[in-house]
Amino acid sequence: MRALAVAALALGLALPAIDAALAVEGKLVLYTSQPNTDAQQTIDAFRAKYPKVEISFVRDGTPRVMAKLRAEIEAGAPQADVLLIADAVTMEGLKKEGRLLAHDKADVSAFPAGVHDPAKMWFATKLITTGIVYNTKAALKPESWLDLAKPEAKNQLAMPSPLNSGAAMIHTITLTGNLPGGWSFYEKLKENGTLAAGANGDILRQVATGEKLYGMIVDFMPIREKAKGAPVEFVFPKEGVSAVSEPVAILKSSKNPEAAKAFVDFLISKDGQELALKQGYVSAHPDVALPAGYPARGAIKLMPFDAAKALADEPAARKRFSAIFEG
């Protein structure tokens, strides 16, 4: 009888949540920079909980997604309800322009302070860090960012250019704000023959083939390729790493804000965060395990980063980087 009573109580508690999910309905348009497979998995998992919501999505790199959204805003007809893109700096720009809708009731109690926007305009869904990849035949096994400026790495380092990548710009601003000497680190890299061009996939290819011995790259790519047998190792340098958080936000112009809030709630819920783990990413939720091939969460040191300050600093950082590498 006691077991039946407990079951009945559990069912009674679950029913209001089910009813609330069924009450959310209508169409929802997602603009995202997620890979297509990840985007579809995310939508499928959300719709399993909110079956009355019909989601369509547009997928491209963050710069192209933003170009499309900007063109629609200029025309007075933004189509997206929800934005799920690579970096918080872009979200800060939209927030400053008054384009985002706050989700005041979002439950962020499980997350450490500083992970999400304090004004609840955008919410981190992952932690994608940038560290060092090296070919296993390299004589120098780097442990520090400063190792990349050593003679052993001369003409052997490739990295994405922050002039073409939002994540690379965040990485550059983070390193120059935290490493001793700031921009002198990048000046030393240039003097050491560093190549700043291409996307993360290009960096991985160059290092895996031995064309270059070292690279700056997002964590999951070399960790996955190492598991497949590629001759690469990934290092989280001792000074710490930069990170992008693949934030999600609701546009103020959303035609279905209730469904959009439900989508955000799902992404930052334990279930949504465990989906990120299944996809092979580091979840932003502190209680979710890390994927295979990663160290313990406590062993990954994140460098301090202020998205609002980075937004203000970006023009100067772009100019300074260009002067070093293209001047």
From TrEMBL:
<feature type="signal peptide">
    <location>
        <begin position="1"/>
        <end position="23"/>
    </location>
</feature>
<protein>
    <submittedName>
        <fullName>ABC transporter substrate-binding protein</fullName>
    </submittedName>
</protein>
<dbReference type="InterPro" id="IPR006059">
    <property type="entry name" value="SBP"/>
</dbReference>
<dbReference type="InterPro" id="IPR026045">
    <property type="entry name" value="Ferric-bd"/>
</dbReference>
<keyword id="KW-0732">Signal</keyword>
<keyword id="KW-0574">Periplasm</keyword>
<dbReference type="Pfam" id="PF01547">
    <property type="entry name" value="SBP_bac_1"/>
</dbReference>
